[in-house]
Write a structure and sequence with these properties.
Blueprint lengths: L1 H6 L10 E5 L4 H14 L3 E5 L2 H7 L6 E4 L5 H11 L4 E6 L14 H28 L3 E8 L13 H21 L4 E8 L5 H6 L9 H14 L8 E4 L5
Parallel strand pairs: 1-2, 1-4, 2-3, 4-5, 5-6, 6-7
Helix pairs in contact: 2-8, 5-6
Length: about 240
């Protein structure tokens, strides 16, 4: 009971307010949902494009599941429909698209797709849910970025489009924080380093990350519920290492 009390809001809407997590079918997203439910007793809507994987990754987890591609207007509308007017205390923008191309092979279509999913969709989803976030004020939007998008961090061949989209996502967090501060909606970005996920193994075959998805998910869950009490508009590296 004590742990739940630490993260509970004091407003009258506490019992109804939701936490939304996109990209919840694997890796950090799935681990964040599990931590929110098991460690904090949060009411969670888990969102992902792959319904079968969403169901298997979160089997036995007491949460609502929405199969939707938040990179599309239709997908974002499905999310709003599932929320059904309930206040949203936190939104974790975790869904992301990884692309790697040799320099010289990037196309406009590649760049448009990676920016649409990684930078544009989180901004548009916040717009879609703004009245419901404001209804739970102080509410928290957490963008899950990458160390590849942090100025001055190590950069890697083949990832210019992906890293640039994550840099844009960090800036989106700073801008949302300013845009919505008068409405009680706060926004921060966690820029992840090396985490043992399928995405990292795809990007860096053979590299062994020092941090598990479960460890990061536990951090993200608590951060989403508490950090906005002290932080707004911050881009925070969360990394023991980068490959």
């Amino acid at each position: 009971m004590g742990a739940k009390k630490d993260v509970a809001f004091t407003g009258a809407m506490d019992g109804e307010a939701l936490v939304l997590v996109t990209g919840a079918s694997r890796g950090v997203g799935a681990a964040t949902v599990q931590a929110l439910v098991h460690a904090h007793g949060a009411r969670v809507i888990a969102i992902a494009r792959d319904g079968d994987r969403l169901a298997s990754s979160l089997a036995g987890i007491a949460c609502e599941r929405v199969v939707a591609d938040v990179g599309t207007a239709e997908g974002r509308a499905l999310v709003a429909q599932a929320v059904a007017g309930r206040p949203v205390r936190a939104l974790v923008n975790n869904a992301g698209l990884f692309r790697s191309r040799p320099f010289g092979a990037w196309s406009m279509a590649d760049l448009e797709e990676v920016f649409r999913v990684n930078a544009h969709a989180p901004l548009l989803l916040v717009q879609e849910l703004l009245p419901l976030l404001a209804a739970a004020a102080p509410a928290h939007v957490v963008n899950i970025g990458s160390m590849g998008g942090v100025q001055g961090s190590a950069k890697f061949p083949g990832l210019v489009g992906y890293s640039a989209s994550k840099a844009a996502l960090a800036c989106v967090a700073e801008c949302i924080a300013e845009e919505l501060k008068e409405r009680g909606v706060r926004c921060n970005c966690l820029s992840l380093g090396a985490v043992d996920t399928e995405m990292l193994r795809e990007a860096f075959p053979g590299y062994q990350a020092p941090v598990t998805a479960d460890q990061v998910g536990a951090f993200v869950a608590r951060f989403a519920l508490e950090a906005h009490k002290l932080l707004n508009g911050k881009v925070i590296p969360l990394a023991l290492s980068t490959p």
